[in-house]
Protein: UDP-glucose 6-dehydrogenase
Organism: Rhodosorus marinus
Amino acid sequence: NGEEIKICCIGAGYVGGPTMAKIAEKCPEIVVTIVDISAARIEQWNSDVLPIYEPGLDDVVKKCRGRNLFFTEEVDKGIREATIIFVAVNTPTKKIGIGAGRAADLTYWELAARRIAAVADTPKIVVEKSTVPIKTAEAISSVLHAAGRTSFSVLSNPEFLAEGTAMDDLEHPDRVLIGGPLTEAGATAIERLSQVYAHWVPQERIIKTNVWSSELSKLVANSFLAQRVSSINAVSAICEASGADVDEVARAVGMDTRIGHKFLKASVGFGGSCFQKDILNLVYLCQSMGLSEVAEYFHWVVKMNDLQKERFVSRIIHGLFNTVTGKRIALLGFAFKKDTGDTRESAAIEVCQRLMQERAEIAIYDPKVEHEQIWYDLSEVTGLEQSQIEKYVKIEGSVQAAAKDAHALVVTTEWDEFKTVDYRKVYQQMSKPAFLFDGRNILDREELHSIGFVTYSIGKPLDTKLNTV
Ligand code: NAI
């Protein structure tokens, strides 16, 4: 029907912000309001310095903010005025209680749903944007129905964007997935939501399914992506032991069109807020359904990732003559991948923690991550106060500064700017022998080797210059 669409999104984070900015850009006649319980976050969204860094996001926000895109703390008002309510709150792994360490913590989700139940006085379409376990939509429906909101529809519309390329991913999504109840009202709600995406997404890319298929598809997609990373990382271990080169293997294997090239890059390990959390969530679901072998199968994707990080750290320690105590190590990159300031589950955190345990001195440089975030992450992982961490860790403003007097460079994030550094200059000011451990395989190891570095890359033949690594 032609009823006016008004959108409210609960949760102004990495997903809520960019997705709603894109909808506002593409649908100028739809008013999009993003609400959040964090006043600080809302204030940042309304300022010149947005709370998240994402290429292309600033332009879209500047273009739409105040026109048909609004950021506010007035959650209740936002809910009341909307016809479609997206819920894009965080769903981290549970830290305590049943399922701790695996299951999704749905506290934020339930609070948001209860808020909708409490204040929405006209029928709404409630859209799950967050990644949630299967049957969450059903649980949310129950909360709404118990509050007398029987004409509300709950849809699943998982988000597939990747941080660092979010705006492009949203502009040209491989698909938009909408799951809804198999009822007439469900079909109408799906149609209304697909009208929004139809402003810029071709019809054939909008997939409509039942709710559970949609919820499960998101967990499966992330599990498959992470599984490819863990598979190629497992191969990298074989390569190092055998003298094969993981990039050559990935190229040869990836040319098989059934396999494909993407996500076959060996590294220190995947990070980010989603992969590990979503796999563990799937593992927990499998366990609770009595599918213990299936659970174990997927669990190994995460275990392999942990092993890869540990293997990398061991290589560093072993390479530096079995001790890093008191040695300065330059850690290049703290974000979980390039082009984002996000550090959630970043491999750098674990590498840093392990090197701290070995009493190394660590000099960190990242072009985008805020210093406070680095201190926060290291406090969380070590349980130490910032003042204690500062005994081991310094944050520097450039590769050059971090590398000064360092025994080793350790690349933990694949920032493009690391490729264009003058490594001759860097080498000159380092302790000798100078080591390079490239956890992202982005640097030209032949060139670095010829400068004088002892180099180590993931899944590559070992540098025999010193016979240490
Ligand atoms: P985030 O932590 O950046 O943002 C969540 C926001 O929700 C925070 O600003 C928080 O203050 C707010 N919030 C929490 N409870 C609230 C409530 N009751 N009312 C109002 N606001 C509330 O999280 P992010 O990364 O945006 O993730 C959101 C969801 O999207 C998660 O389920 C995640 O798995 C999923 N997702 C994340 C992707 C990513 O790349 N970050 C990609 C695809 C899905």
